[in-house]
Amino acid sequence: MAASTPRNVDPPTNHQSVPQNSDHNNNTPCVGTELTKFLVKKELLLSRLSAFNDKPENYLMWKGSFSIIIKDLSVTPMEELDLLVKYLGPESRQQAMRLRASHPTDPVKGLARIWERLDERYGSPELVEAILKEKIARFPRITVKDPKKIYELSDLAAEVESVKENPKYKTLLAYYDSSCGVNTFVYKLPGFLQSKWTDRALKYKVEHEVLYPPFVVFTKFLKEMSIRMNDPSFAFDKSPSSYDNREKATTGRGHVITNKTKLTPQKLSKCPLHETDAHSLSNCRIFKNKTMEEKKSFIRQHGLCFRCCDGRHSARECQEHVLCKECNSDRHCDAMHEARNPTFVHSGEGDRVRPFGTTNAKVTASCTLVCGQEGFKGKSCAKTVLVNVYPEHHPNQRIKAYILIDDQSNRSLAKSEFFDHFNENTQEIEYVLSSCSGHVTTTGRQASGYIIESLDGSTKLSLPTLIECNQIPNIREEIPTPEVAKYHEHLSDIADEIPPYDPSAPILLLIGRDMIAAHHVLDQRIGQSNSPYAQKLRFGWVVIGETCLGALHKPETITTNKIHILSNGRP
Question: Which of 7, 81, 143, 168 is surrounded by the fewest CB atoms within 10 Å?
Fold first, then answer.
């Protein structure tokens, strides 16, 4: 009998262990991917953190971004405290470190104290409102030639709307839902857009039966107008024919001009006055001897540049190198230099020098008691006040100057000396200056963001946008002095309140009706029918009328300051 061979019996197989190993191997790549995503996201979030620059106008935006990133990172209070101190500005970091040191074992409380301090220092409602007002006030008025500025104004309005939606600031900024707040923006728009907003607002008031459209309606209007004004499809001012004519004109003379530029440093073009190529208009002696009004009229008639006098382009587009030999200015050539000959009467404004005879000399001596200083003759006084002027936030740069307060002018003006002193090299605008002598089209710089202050510092007002104009009268005889008031019985009690005459202070500004607070009359002194009277304005006392006793001084010139400025270029 054969022996049976034993069978090989396989050990029992653990069927559950195999799928477990399989799941582990399949999940390993998933865990690695998730870990990689987490690290990349964390690095990306940290890279989005930006440092605070200690400027209140940027605090709300920075705080919102920082809070969102911290929430996504899910950090502990101690880690948040470290990140907060790291990404603060120099000044705010010092405050945060002091508060952190006062709570070394309680990061939650220290974090709360730091945020409370930052909100008080950089995010208080009053501070935010003041910053928004300042931004709006400093924003320049928009012209038709600069439609891209409407985007910037729309962004500023959107910023106000966003801040206003915050419950913390909603009550304080509620006036932007009225005409009082919206008009601060409307004033910056061109005239035709102001009319469009008037129609839009009136329609909204009628349809919704409200006193005034809410601010969100105005921001929507600004957004629509910014798109419309910057859409090239609606640019109708430049026709193809004008481009063709410009190309033909450029082609016809471009070759000659290029050769001349290469051969000589001076541009020799044809003089339109003499119809000759021997000299250019800027070097023409006959043209230089003309009056400034005749020069401007000739240039306008021939379509020439007011800056170089040679090219057929505007002064704003002029690329020629120009330097006046008389005053070293690069804003006009020698031929357009306006000489101001000093006179005995106006100290720089008259057209002629008027010598005084024996009779006039005696009159001057007789009036010394009233007018005060020898050589200064306060014959007929006007609203001229001595004040301090300085850029906003820079009172250390203040200068002392006389200002003319003229309720017959619709805009405030400043002389070139003012713009040069404060380095205001803004782009020139064209405007029409209307006075009794007629309409004059001229150009000038603009300046805003200045403060005018009374000598005693009791009154400070923000100046409106100033326009450069050298036609401001420089009649120093109209400046009131203490001596003028002292020798009139009804004015004697205010003599000590009028500052002495300051010969070093120039007459720089003319304040028009766009700064109505400067015209407010707080008190007055009235005498007999033909005697001078005095008014107390916000910047001090002024004397108006003939002040010489016995009318010894006869006025040699007539001064009429009826000035109206049209910024749209039309008389």
Answer: 7
SS3 of residue 55 by DSSP: coil
Distance between CA atoms of residues 295 and 303, nearest Å: 12
Q: Supply the pLDDT for residue 561.
A: 55
CB 472 within 8 A of CB 478: no
3-state secondary structure of 523: strand
| For range 444-470, the mean pLDDT | 92
> Rounded to an integer, what distance in angstroms lies between the CA atom of residue 31 and that of residue 24?
10
Q: Which long-range contacts (CB under 8 A, 24 or more apart) does 433-437 make?
A: 433/469, 433/471, 433/563, 433/564, 433/565, 434/563, 434/564, 434/565, 434/566, 434/571, 435/471, 435/560, 435/561, 435/562, 435/563, 435/564, 436/560, 436/562
Task: Tell me the C-alpha distance between 415 and 420, whole Å.
Answer: 9
Close Cβ partners of 196 (under 8 Å, ≥ 6 residues apart): 221, 225
CB 463 within 8 A of CB 365: no
Say which residues have a Cβ less than 8 Å from residue 524's Cβ, sequence separation at least 6: 533, 534, 535, 536
In sequence order, the β-bridge partners of residue 438 are: 435
N- to C-terminal Cα separation, the chain: 140
φ, ψ of residue 452 in degrees (nearest 5): -115, 130
Q: What is the pLDDT of residues 40-74, one digit of tens each?
A: 766 777 777 888 888 887 888 888 888 888 888 88
Helix (H) or strand (E) holding 218: helix 215-229
Residue 254 has pLDDT above 50, yes or no: no
Q: Where are the alpha helices (DSSP H) in 53-147?
A: 59-73, 77-86, 90-101, 107-122, 125-138
Calculate the dihedral angle through the C-alpha atoms of 243, 245, 249, 254, rounding to the nearest 10 degrees.
Answer: 30
pLDDT of 353 > 70? The answer is no
Rounded distance between C-alpha atoms, residue 471 and residue 349, angstroms: 9
Spatial distance between the Cα atoms of 449 and 464, rounded to a whole number of angstroms: 8
373-566 adopts what CATH topology?
A: Cathepsin D, subunit A; domain 1 (2.40.70)
- The dihedrals phi and psi of 466, each to the nearest 5 degrees, come to -95, 145
136 Cβ contact list (under 8 Å, min separation 6): 156, 184, 185, 188
Indicate the SS3 state at residue 235. coil
On the question of pLDDT at 126 being above 50, the answer is yes
The DSSP element (H or E) to which 380 belongs, if any, is: strand 380-381
| Alpha carbons within 13 A on the beta-carbon side of 542 | 27
φ, ψ of residue 463 to 5 degrees: the values are -75, 145
Beta strand 507-511 with 399-405 is parallel
The ranges assigned to domains in the chain are 40-123, 140-230, 373-566
* Helix, strand, or coil (residue 538): coil
3-state secondary structure of 443: strand
